[in-house]
Each structure stands twice: as C-alpha cells, then as structure tokens.
Design goal:
single chain; mainly alpha; two-stranded antiparallel sheet
Length: about 100
C-alpha cells in the first residue's frame, strides 16, 4: 500500500506534528513497512488455531475469600462529623 502525501498531512494534523521533508519521508517509509507487516500477519492461515487468553497453560493461585477482620462501625462513625442510622451524612452537592 502506498501512503499518499494527503495521508501524511492528515496524520500530522491529527497528531499535532510539524514534520519537515526528511521526517515526512521517514514517516511514510515507516508507515508503509508497518502496513506491509500487518498484511503479512493477516495473510497467515489461522483457521485451525484455537484462541487463547494466555500463552501459558497456568492458573492463578487465589487465596480463599474469607473475612479476616471485623469492622467496628460505631468506632469509625464516632470520628465522623455527622451520621444517622449507621450512614454518613455529607453536604448536598446537587441542587
């Protein structure tokens, strides 16, 4: 695929880049190589390949989901400026 000058102009505008002639030429070459690589990857037959979430066949060791400490709500709410029926009262922010 050939990258046109207007494509480089559009990319420069989107990325807010100011490239001189040499940089524009290098960018065009790099973009053409990236597109060629993506086309080569897309050309590979993957019809018999099962998708994976991870390349290694391993599972994460997880700890048991158990309560490890008790929360004393009354002690925490004693520090709050305003509470009512176990809830924290805060100033109204929506009119």
């Amino acid at each position: 695929m050939t990258i046109l000058e207007k494509d480089i102009d559009k990319l420069c505008a989107l990325a807010r880049l100011g490239l001189d002639a040499d940089e524009r030429s290098a960018a065009r070459t790099d973009l053409e190589r990236m597109i060629a690589m993506a086309d080569a990857i897309a050309a590979v037959d993957t019809s018999g390949v099962v998708p994976l979430a991870h390349p290694l066949d391993a599972t994460a060791r997880l700890r048991a989901d158990e309560v490890t400490e008790a929360v004393d709500r009354d002690a925490f709410q004693a520090l709050a400026p305003l509470t009512h029926d176990g809830l924290y009262l805060v100033p109204r922010v929506i009119e």
